[in-house]
Design brief:
Number of domains: 3
Number of helices: 13
Largest sheet: 4 strands, mixed
Oligomer: single chain
Distance between the termini: 96 Å
Strand order of the largest sheet: 1-2-3-4
Strand content: 5-15%
């Protein structure tokens, strides 16, 4: 009977120790592979500098150096990676950059001007991201501001132009960590178990099984609920024809004239940067309503310019508007009254053409 009890003790101890090691390894591995925010921001800056240097070259140099430059940028910013900042783990999706480089590489009909504009567009987006991340780095928060840190970093990386997915520290992760610590406290040393501990270990095993089942159920609900809500939103959007342009949802009853009126209001309030964005979206919707420009939620400014290449007058009118919008919105260059007046006049001229 004693031999049987000892074997039971050893089996339970071995199982508990194995679970502890496995879960501890899982947690440590996740933390070890996450890059720091400073490292990620440095690589964003290096990629932007490389693209800017290429865009400043002449056409033959661009063609000769593009392969090496795009390889450098892809290595610096892989399609997907994790970034850690003040306890917040973020899944960053850099695939938008890889897709843009692939599109550029596969389009042999681009003129020298189009090549420079495409590279400048990527450079501006990366520099804007670099500036926002640098601001976040400077605003260091204490342990009590962890939720604020998560909110700030999520707000930066959830922008439509930097498609990404934020992984929050869930209650499930905290539960696993507590369980690991509990097991470590329960078995601090590899000593033979006393016969009286079998009942407590058996009860602990039951608690673990129940907790594991509840955790799996909670995880399934956590994953399924957003999917169901997303489908409902998509159905609702399809039924009411909500338009999404550059990440902004436009109600079906709003006309381009309404949006231009909102832009004028923003300009009078002194928010010229937002006024330029609103007027630009109004222009895109007006062109879409006239069937001159096919709009889509996933399309970028570069896609819209390529779509009107067969309409020279419209392309020539739209190109400076795109450059001005990206400079003031993505590049964070302060807009003046003169900038706003010129942008508004160019919008009106583009509609006349």
């Amino acid at each position: 009977m004693n031999v049987l009890d000892n074997k039971t003790h050893l089996a339970v101890y071995a199982l508990a120790s194995l679970i502890c090691v496995l879960f501890a390894g899982t947690v440590d591995t996740g933390a070890a592979h996450a890059a720091s925010l400073r490292d990620y921001n440095r690589r964003v800056r290096e990629a932007a500098v490389a693209l800017d240097a290429l865009a400043s070259s002449d056409a033959p140099t661009i063609r000769a150096r593009f392969a090496d430059t795009q390889r450098f940028v892809r290595e610096k910013l892989p399609p997907s990676e994790t970034v850690e900042w003040q306890g917040t783990v973020v899944r960053v999706n850099n695939s938008w950059l890889h897709d843009a480089l692939t599109d550029y590489e596969g389009n042999s009909k681009l003129t020298a001007e189009d090549q420079a504009h495409a590279l400048n567009s990527l450079t501006v987006r990366l520099l804007a991201l670099n500036e926002r991340l640098s601001e976040a780095e400077k605003q260091s928060a204490g342990a009590n501001d962890k939720e604020e840190a998560r909110r700030r970093l999520s707000a930066i990386l959830r922008r439509p132009e930097y498609a990404n997915e934020v992984q929050r520290e869930s209650a499930l992760q905290r539960l696993w960590q507590r369980f690991i610590e509990w097991l470590r406290d329960l078995f601090p040393n590899a000593k033979p178990l006393e016969p009286g501990t079998v009942a407590s270990l058996s009860k602990a095993a039951q608690v673990f099984v129940i907790a594991l089942a509840l955790a799996v159920l909670a995880f399934a609900i956590w994953k399924l609920v957003p999917l169901i809500q997303g489908r409902r939103k998509r159905k609702s959007a399809g039924g009411t024809s909500v338009r999404v342009v550059l990440g902004e949802e436009i109600a079906p009853e709003k006309t381009p004239a309404d949006l231009l009126a909102e832009a004028e209001t923003l300009a009078r309030e002194g928010n010229l940067r937002a006024a330029i964005r609103k007027a630009y979206i109004a222009l895109l919707i007006e062109l879409g309503d006239r069937r001159l420009l096919p709009l889509a939620q996933h399309k970028t400014n570069r896609d819209y310019l390529l779509a009107v290449r067969n309409k020279p007058s419209l392309h020539d009118a739209l190109q400076p508007l795109v450059a001005s919008f990206e400079r003031h919105w993505y590049g964070f260059v302060p807009a003046t009254e003169t900038d706003w007046g010129e942008f508004r006049a160019r919008c009106q001229q583009a509609l006349k053409n």
